[in-house]
Structure formats: structure tokens, C-alpha cells
């Protein structure tokens, strides 16, 4: 973790795009470690964890929050000093909506190079994608922490495969440095990918935000101020954590599912680096040392009449993956909220036992401390939703 260069406050109703735009307007060497979708709201994203493209170097959002302002169940406006360390701990990864209304965060900005390097290299099954994905699992969490090798998996039509469908693995990556320093690392740790200078683009950190948000080259930074999400569709997502590499036969099963529903998309999101230096109990977000990567399963579609088919598909894929992912509990990322794994009765009579079904998946043993904090600060369960932390007094 780097030392803070400056401190910044941020209204919790802002979007990530607005935050990044504001930082870039004042400095080319400061950034904040959070997600890649500019229209995501800061409040929910930060309070649930906040993983992003520089997290292997600088941790996640909650690791860089130093103060907050919250309205509690009694209508009091509190900062870190007046809310106390237990509540401040809870809203940095345990979800702010269980405990009050977070109206502002104060965060550490981190130092980054003026020039970073991005690349997006795709390989199909005919180009040894299975072997590349298998090897990726052994190096992605151990490679230089300045490099984050994110991996997208999908089914595409391939001219090289006579127009039939094949699996495409896209290595969409950020390196905090120049290409001349990146290439030797890749040649040493992942020569099988065959990365060359022509695959890489040097740019500023703020330009990389546009790159990963899929904006065309040359797009004005002003687009980050747009709060409206484009191309709204139906969507279902789920998540998993992987602690041992998935064998090739397991990957072959994933390929079968992706070819069955060509609207599905998997992300393999690497951990390691700074994420492994923080104890599980330090924040409610417990997914630290020992995790190789997180899986985000997603499927998006336009026709509402097809909803059940796509939802059934992703649930079957999730069931298939059970032998290959974390166990006791089968962990999940709170910011990828999944009501399939249990929900509260939002009328307020959810028991600890009911909530623990999903609570231990998101927070592991930190769930018990979250319940104690909730019982202390909101015993009547005023702040509640389908997966909020319940007080012990709930029946």
C-alpha cells in the first residue's frame, strides 16, 4: 500500500465516473482504487467492498476509506469519531444500507505513474485458449502486483472454425507502468500468451478508465459525468471464489455451458498482491489471502419472454461449478448481490438463522460481528432490505 498523497472527501451520491473525473482534473499521478463502471454509485460500491483494476497494487475501496458521515436510525449525523469504530468498521464492506444512510466518505488517494499500459488480447480454443486459461490460474495472483490480468470468457462465432461457435478468452489488463517494463514480466511469467508491443497501448490512468468502460478511443473525459447507464437490458449475475486451480476438464464443462447460451459471460478476476496483506477480520470484506480469483457469472438479454431460460442457465452453471470453488462457506461478493442464496423478510422479522444463509457467504465469520453492530445501532431494524444484516432481536 502506498502512502496517501492527499485526502479527499466524496459525496456518497456521486458516481465512480464523477469521482475519477474530479481526481483527474487535479492530478495525473493520483487515483482511487475502485471499480470500472462509471455509472455505479460511490455509496453502495464503497460500502460493499469496491474492487477495481488497481486493487492488486492498492487494495480495494474499503481499504482506503478513512472517515465517513452517516445518518443513523435516530436521525443523528455522525462521523467516524462520533459513530465509533465498530460502526465505522461495519460500513466499510458490510453494506451501509444495513446501518444507516452514508452521505459522505473521506478517502486516501493513491499514487500512480503518469503513464500506464493496457492491452486486450483474445484467444480462441483453436488458439489454445483452454491451456492459456489453465496456466493463467497459476500465475494471475502471483504476478507483479502492478499488473492485473483480468480474463473474460464467452462464446463467439469463429471464421477460423467454419463459422461455428467457439470459446474466446480475452485477457483485458492494466499495468501500472510502461510497456518496456511490462513485456519482460509477461515473457517471464506468461510467455504462452505471446504478448507483443503492438498489443499494448500506453495512456494515462484516467484514459484507462474509458478503455475498460469500452468507450471508443478519443472519447472526451466529459462522458464520465454522464449518470445514465446505456443499453439497459435484463441481467442476472452470480459470483464465486476460487482457491485451487480449476482442472482442464472443469474448464471444458464451462465451455459447454457458454456454447449453450451465447449471451453468457464469465469474468475471472485475479486476487493476490495487496488484497492478501489485509487480515480477513480487518474489514467486513473477508475475501483476502488464499483466493486465486473471483468469478463473476453474468447473462444479459433483451426479450423479457426469455428471462426464465437465461436464469435457469446461469443457475445450472453455478451448480456445476460447486466442486471447483470455495467451500464451507461457498463464498460470494456482496457487491454482486444474489438473491438466489437467500433473502430477508423485509417486514422486519428475519431471524439470525435465516440471514446467516447468505451472511456467511458474503462475510464469512465477520457476519457475527456485523450482527452485533446492527443490534447495537439499529435494534428495531429500521434499515432493512432483502439482504440486510438483522439485529439479534429480530424473531
CATH class of the largest domain: Alpha Beta
Oligomer: single chain
Low-confidence stretches: 1-10
Report the helical percentage: 25-40%
Q: What is the ordering of alpha helices and beta strands?
A: EHEHHEEHHEEEHEEHEHEHEEHHH
Distance between the termini: 43 Å
Shape: globular
Structure class: alpha+beta
Q: What is the CATH architecture assignment of the largest domain? A: 3-Layer(aba) Sandwich
The main sheet orders its strands as 10-7-9-8-12-13-11
Rg of Cα set: 21 Å
CATH fold naming of the largest domain: Vanillyl-alcohol Oxidase, Chain A, domain 3
Topology:
Blueprint: E1 7-11, H1 16-26, E2 30-31, H2 42-48, H3 55-58, E3 65-71, E4 77-78, H4 80-83, H5 85-90, E5 101-108, E6 110-111, E7 116-124, H6 129-139, E8 147-157, E9 165-175, H7 179-189, E10 200-203, H8 205-212, E11 234-242, H9 248-260, E12 264-270, E13 293-301, H10 307-320, H11 352-363, H12 366-377
Antiparallel strand pairs: 1-5, 2-6, 3-4, 3-5, 7-9, 7-10, 8-9, 8-12, 11-13, 12-13
In short:
The chain is of the alpha+beta class and 395 residues long. Helices cover 29% and strands 22% of the residues.
Features of the shown structure:
395 residues; alpha+beta; Uridine Diphospho-n-acetylenolpyruvylglucosamine Reductase, domain 3; Vanillyl-alcohol Oxidase, Chain A, domain 3; four-stranded antiparallel β-sheet; globular; disordered N terminus; FAD-bd_PCMH-like_sf; BBE; Oxid_FAD_bind_N; glycoprotein
Outline the structure in words.
- It is a single chain.
- With 395 residues, the chain is α+β, with helices and mostly antiparallel strands.
- The chain has 2 domains: 7-111, 2-Layer Sandwich (Uridine Diphospho-n-acetylenolpyruvylglucosamine Reductase, domain 3), CATH 3.30.465.10; 115-203 and 231-341, Vanillyl-alcohol Oxidase, Chain A, domain 3.
- The chain is 29% helix and 22% strand.
- The protein is built from 12 helices and 13 strands.
- It has a 7-stranded antiparallel β-sheet. It has a 4-stranded antiparallel β-sheet with strand order 1-5-3-4. A two-stranded antiparallel ribbon has the order 2-6.
- Strand 3 (65-71) and strand 4 form a beta hairpin.
- The longest helix has 14 residues, at 307-320.
- The protein is globular, with a radius of gyration of 21 Å.
- The chain starts with 6 loop residues before the first strand and ends in an 18-residue tail after the last helix.
